[in-house]
Amino acid sequence: MVPMDDSKDALVSQLSMAIRDISGYPECRNASKKMYNNLVRRVKLLSPLFEELKDSEEELDEEEVRGFESLKIALDSARELLRSINEGSKLFQALQMEKIAGDFQQVTEQIEEAMSRIPYDKLDISEEVREQIELVHAQFKRAKGRRDSPDLLLEMDLSIAQKDIDIDPSILKRLSEKLHLRTMNDLRKESLAIRDMVISCGEDLGDCIQTMSFLLQKLKDVVIGNPDKDTSESEKELIKHRSPTYERSCIQKWLDAGHKTCPKTQQTLLHTALTPNYVLKSLIALWCESNGIELPKRQGNCGDKKSGASGSDCDRAAINTLIDKLADGNLDQQRAAAGELRLLAKRNSDNRVFIAEAGAIPLLVELLSSVDSRTQEHAVTALLNLSIHEANKGNIVNSGAIPDIVDVLKNGSMEARENAAATLFSLSVVDENKVAIGAAGAIPVLIDLLCHGTPRGKKDAATAIFNLSIYQGNKVRAVRAGIVGPLMRLLRDSGGGMVDEALAILAILASHQEGKVAIGQAEPIPVLVEVIRTGSPRNRENAAAVLWSLCTGDVQYLRIVIELGGEEALKELSENGTERAKRKAGSVLELLQRVDVIQSP
Q: Locate the U-box domain: which residues (predicted)?
């Protein structure tokens, strides 16, 4: 055994830091979005393991140290890949999507293989954390065996855009949206990213630089809406906006004079709240920079400083304006403001901090009860995005959000229900919230989503149920709400993509007496034996755990195992399974031997 000396403490701290860094990366908004976000989500779920290991006084043996060192190398690779995606050229990533997909696959395999080397059963961690890590390992195992389907429409659009001189504007519009190159500011950042690539890679990029430059110019034409080659992009936008664009002070004077109509069209205004034109401000800044002109100093409240998260003061002012609309606006204003805050909260951690500090959470909680379904969707999704920041979880719960989130889960649109389930999972990471969420009646509604939701909704529901069922009281709630039947249907549907989740939840429930009884009544032995014969390593392990719980103290299940010829599968698992699977299979075999002794003449 190796003592947990300073070097071992350092190893655990480094792993914890790597997970914290990865969890803090902003959401991806380009062609790599799905692979990037899935990797971040899975890695984040490893955090409780290392938080518990930090507090452990037990020793690590050489096998455990080697496993953690392998995981550190894998997480360092993941961190570097995510950083390059986050900071790199979006056009380059789209053009090199096959290679990047391979990079994500390699990192996924690296993490899964490292996790396979860690003997979780030997670690000084709680059963709840062990079960969560096993579920995460199962997710990595499943992801290792398959690649995400390519975006064929994106590939086709890129291929056409590279060949044609007169490109269909709809194709360029789709590329602009999918690559999130929608504004001049987006294009400026992309141009800088390409420049950095040229500096670092030089001639190694070959013809790729010409292709990216060509596409970037075409996308600029789309954003600007005028392909005139003799005028700079920023000048064209300024010319386009010269009329009818009015200064804020003039608009304010018009409104202060009592007018409720547009000065140009004479149409009645829906509201009189002023929203800054950030696109035009960005274009003006670009033009000033290109022409060596100093941008005029900001006036008014954009110069006020506040403590807390970083970010531009005008962004803070915009957030405050949006929050004012949440508080005092009409239904249309509230819907629009909640939608904007949803996107801002998704964008980065600074926004999550400042939006919460500015008082948005109680107002968003109020909107969970909105009669407008779209407003409700925006509100619950904004709270989901805000909950990513750990400190916000307590603020959300303290604002009385849990009953309202459960109500959205029950009565909202499908998108709102899915995001409500994801929000409950996020909040349930905090142990005391597991109790409150269960007491608020969330589990029966999550079971309904598990039965009738979209594939994504079922995954969200299963993840939330698994995490909530770590608390003993919620095991009982889940069983009494009838979860065993749906789980058995998912388990028997091998093509439904929910076998891993169903078995993981069943393994938790089987540790409780009521869960054990309910599972036994569902005639589970045949499917459990089949999984032990043919399933993935983690599924075989969980199936053996459920089987052991059922067979302990109940001879009838042992006889069914014998009738089905399950002994051979258990013997093979006891020799070649995971450490936990070996133990569980060995324990069931011991029980089977006792039955043989009893039945012998």
A: 245-294
